[in-house]
Amino acid sequence: MSERANFKNTLGLILATAGSAVGLGNIWRFPYMAGENGGASYIVIYIFCILLFGIPCMVSEFIIGRHSASNTARAYRKMGNKWWSIVGLVSVITGFLITCYYVVVCGWCLQYFYATIVGELNGDVNYYIQYFKDFSADPLKPILWAVVFMAATYYIVIHGVRGGIERASKVMMPALFILLLVIVVASCLLPGAEKGIAFLFMPDFSKVTGSTLIDAMGQSFYSLSIGMGCICTYASYFSRRTNLTKSAVQIGVIDSMVAILAGLMIFPAAFSVGVQPDSGPSLIFITLPNVFQQAFASMPFVGIMVSFAFYALLALAALTSLISLYEVNTAFFQEELKISRKKSATIVTVGTGVIGVFCSLSLGAVDWLTIGGMTLFDIFDYFTGQIFLPAVGFFSCLFIGWYVPKQIVKDEFTNWGTLRSTLFGVFMFCVRFLCPAGILLIFLNQLGLLPL
Q1: What distance in Å separates the CA atoms of residue 32 and residue 284, rounded to the nearest whole number?
Q2: Contact 103, 94 (CB under 8 A)
Q3: Per-residue DSSP letters for 228-268?
Q4: What is the number of alpha carbons within 13 Å of residue 427 lying toward its C-beta?
Q5: For residues 187 and 320, what is the distance between their CA atoms, to the nearest angstrom?
Q6: Which residues pair with 375 in a beta bridge?
Q7: Sign of the C-alpha dihedral, residues 12, 17, 20, 24?
Q8: Do 431 and 57 form a contact (C-beta atoms < 8 A)?
Q9: Spatial separation of the C-alpha atoms in residues 278 and 8, rounded to whole Å
Q10: Spatial distance between the Cα atoms of 21 and 35, rounded to a whole number of angstroms
Q11: Which residue from 272, 267, 318 is spatially nearest to 296, judged by alpha carbons?
């Protein structure tokens, strides 16, 4: 096998890996989670969870990926045994299943981007509710948009780590930040926006409950792509000189900044027109179009441009994450089947595309694609998010904390003694005790066994 590819420089490494983490989890999920959990107090707890849980778990996946220099399934097998390889394989399968339904949501982003351009997003809140229901249940449109998204992802992935993923990330991530900042400025200049800003930056800890902590902890894992195989796969392309802890902190900072800016983009506008911050998952596709329309009613051109920029931003964020999910499975098939990157990416495209079609059709176009009252889309979302991700994260921590020889972990953590090991003891405590305990709490709460 030829020498393994790697990132050209640190900037490309950080932007590509941050692109994996920055996605709909930041721009869609984080704002509505913050809205449902009190705003500023939730953000403080979220950042605390990133530091104590997210970064140690990310460093663990970095160590596994770089030390093995393999796809995620093979990485656990090389560092462990056939039983531990199951964890890596489940991680790859999780990435595959997430891709199947995530690409459907990516297609929705493109539809709303297109609808903004042609002027379809214009009406009251009932109009937006019906618009989303009609579009998501359409047997053809969501699939066509999903295919467009997959084609773009396929094109980037087949051009390799440097020529495809790294090059695209260096363009898309700065573009994402510029769009985000433009919308934040526009939102914060609206009348009454100061209420939304206060909601985000003035904590009221009297509203904090046990569920707030669990939600923030779960969001930190979801947002950083822990357990999906993305972090481990990208780390397999790291050089021996890469400072794993520093990289994890930088990615955590970028990820958190995007999440907070997303809140700063959404809530000032929402408060400006009197929309409640706890609008839930419908916030992006139902509530926000109405918010933008009302907020910029006196400046319709500005409203159109803000909506245009917002859905372009959403599509970019979705694409950066989809690329990393694609790469997990592309690397797996390429190495396990010993085939070219192009053939491997083709397998991923066809496999996830076919299943993605059924996920999309299950949302209304085809009645029989339901099990136990849940659509195929919801089933994939539930099992990957509620079971597979926490399980992979939990066993990854046990793997690094208790199974892999401590000297190997320390060598990777300190780049073979060339970096200071001041925080190594803290890291080991987190991955041995703190992170597994936190993940277990999330898992039990998601299953309803620890109601808070």
Answers
A1: 9
A2: no
A3: SSHHHHHHTT--TT--HHHHHHHHHHHHHHHHHHHHHHHHH
A4: 25
A5: 24
A6: 370
A7: negative
A8: yes
A9: 43
A10: 21
A11: 272
DSSP labels for 176-190? HHHHHHHHHHHHHTS
- CA-based nearest residue to 116, from 355, 306, 266: 306
What is the tens place of the pLDDT at every residue in 97-148? 999 999 999 999 999 999 988 888 887 778 888 898 899 889 999 999 999 9
d(CA 166, CA 372): 42
Closest CA to 272 of 299, 311, 312: 299
Residue 368 burial (CB count, 10 A):
7
Rg (CA), the chain: 21
pLDDT class of 423 with cuts at 50, 70, 90: very high
| φ and ψ of 371, to 5 deg | -135, 120
3-state secondary structure of 176: helix
The token pair that represents 328 in the structure block? 């997990």
The pair of three-digit structure tokens given for residue 60, joined into one six-digit string:
């663990």
pLDDT in tens, 233-292: 999 999 999 999 999 999 999 989 998 998 898 888 888 888 766 655 566 787 778 777
pLDDT confidence bin for 156, thresholds 50/70/90: very high
Token pair, residue 278, equals: 């706890």
The per-residue pLDDT for range 302-317, each reduced to its tens digit, is 878 888 888 888 889 8
Tell which residue, 97, 106, 104, 114, has the closest CA to residue 138: 104
What token pair was written down for 347?
A: 């397998």
CA nearest neighbour of 46 among 217, 227, 261, 223 = 217
